[in-house]
Amino acid sequence: MDQEFFDNIIYLKDLKATQDIVHEYTLKDQKSPLVIDNGSFQCRVGFANRKTPQLIFKNLICKPRKDRNKKDTKEEIAQQAPPATLIGNDIVNIEALRFQLRTQFDRNVVTHFYIQEQIFDYMFTHLGINTEGSVNHPIVMTEAMVNPNYCRSLMSELLFECYQIPSVFYGIDSLFSFNYNDNIKGTGLIISLGYHTTHVIPFMNGQHIIDKIRRVNVGGFHMMTYMHRLMQLKYSMHVNNITLSRIEELFHGHSRISYDYFEDLKKWSSHEYYDNHIKKVQLPYSQSAATTQLTAEQKIEKKKEMSRRLAEINARKREERLAEEEDQLQKLEEVLESFDDEDTEDFEMGLKELNLSTYEELEKTIAATRARIDKIKLKMQAVETGVTTEEKPVIIPMPPQGINLEDWLSEVREKKSAILEKKQVRRQRRSDLAKRRTAAAQERMRIISKLAGKEKGTDDFGSRDEDWDVYKAISREQDSDSEVENEKLMEIDEILRHHDPMLEDEEKLKMTPAEYHQLHFSVEAIRAPELLFQPSMMGICEAGLAETIDYVLKLFTATEQQQLVDNIFLTGGIAKLPGLKERLWRELMEIRPFKSTYNVKIAKEGSFDAWNGARKFTISGNNLNAHSITKEEYYELGGEYIKENCFSNFYYKTPAEKIDTTVVT
What we know:
This protein is an alpha/beta fold. It has 25 helices and 20 strands. Among the domains are: 296-385; 405-451 and 466-509. Helices cover 46% and strands 11% of the residues. The longest helix is centred in the middle third of the chain and has 45 residues, at 296-340. Residues 296-379 form a coiled coil. Belongs to the actin family. ARP5 subfamily.
């Protein structure tokens, strides 16, 4: 096959998670900070003295359900160990347990702390921390932008009360990423592209402007879910094979942001563009289950084999018929002998048993039976000696005089379509009757129950000719394909095979099993990511990213706007999507005044920049202890307290302090 055919096929990797090892705990006597990027999609954990995180896993847990069909006594239940909870990379096959997965997040905010506790247990266990009753390492941890005080209070309570940590520092992931890629003391417009939300964060003179930050409730989760629905609606026959894990692979590996979405839609409407740019996703399939197409020679050979088997069946039937006829002839001759012996009583009794009335009728029956026996013997003798009638040459019908070949073939095709349509109607009727709640099955049951409900004394069914039409309504014999139709179809196929040049091309166009399990991945590659700029496509009544950037910029003076757009920074998991930078350039060109300048930069490592930025802050001598919350401060000031700095949220006391509005006279 052509190389181009293989170049446009996407073979899914279907990668399974590899279980994390338990690392050796070599920092028992050191106070090396532990950096945790607690993202709603992935969690990255590692000590600050390592260049890369030691654990990377999805923030999910799975608690297998108990088999409800298994009936155990209370004593047996008490003795059984609870089902093991799978966490992170222990969930090797996510799709098999999709409906049992749980996360500690509600959007981008941690709300389920009993799950978060199990996640912490998983982290500390696989890092090898074996100190009893405590984790003796300062923790640097990410939290959501404008994280509610209540959620932070519960997180601090969990860390200080349960794990007895010495201190904790809370920071915002996008600001850590900005620190890793740029000077945190500078100015810029940070666009944080998260899993559930997107934030536009103005950052000026080393501090984010909290009251001018805006959020769009669209993230990678919404884009992948939207793509998942599109593909399942497009290929309903493969709905079970189109899983979220495979869509995730397609989204990150083959999606892109369109520079001009509506212009690209016009391009995809062209058949030539479609054929040149289409990508085909190869789904897994079983080769053994694939049906092979028979050639014309194989069909002829198969037909001969069926004829041979039919001849054997007919020979057995002839032998059985011969035995029956000879037995019948013997009975008839015995009755005839009783007549010759003038045994009138036996003769009349014999005639009665044979359903005969006179001697002449007996003689006619004997003669007919002997004739049938002789005929059967002749056929059997002909088969045994190999004397067969010559096969008639196959005569291919030709178009009648005065009719064009194309018109005749068109008429033949219409006849074939009509027969196939009748067969399809009968097949659908059989399917409907097999189901209990279909209209056909209910109508049949109504007629049967109506007939059965009549009393014996008033049963006059059959006295009218239209009564017998009921049997046609409830009979299932009409649902089977007739031999006449099948023979007619074979005849039509033979005509088309000899006269229709397009039939061979149609045979070539029939899909192979591999092609049947291919998904055309076309406009979906740009349609799902377009949600970032047009949330209304998914029914979210919010402004897109471009409009939100425009709104935020208008909150500043012209000079400040120019300072912000000179350093636009994209961070997050979907910041690496191809075309995003170019699309923002185009949107900024429409937003900004004529001949304005601007600069767009993308994070170095996307998803890992937040962890790297937190690590950079930890080891850069920024006096981590001065910005962290110690256990003593937690007990004194409460769990919601936070020390403000360039990476953290602002602290707003709950409840807010009352303002004295008394007018002094």
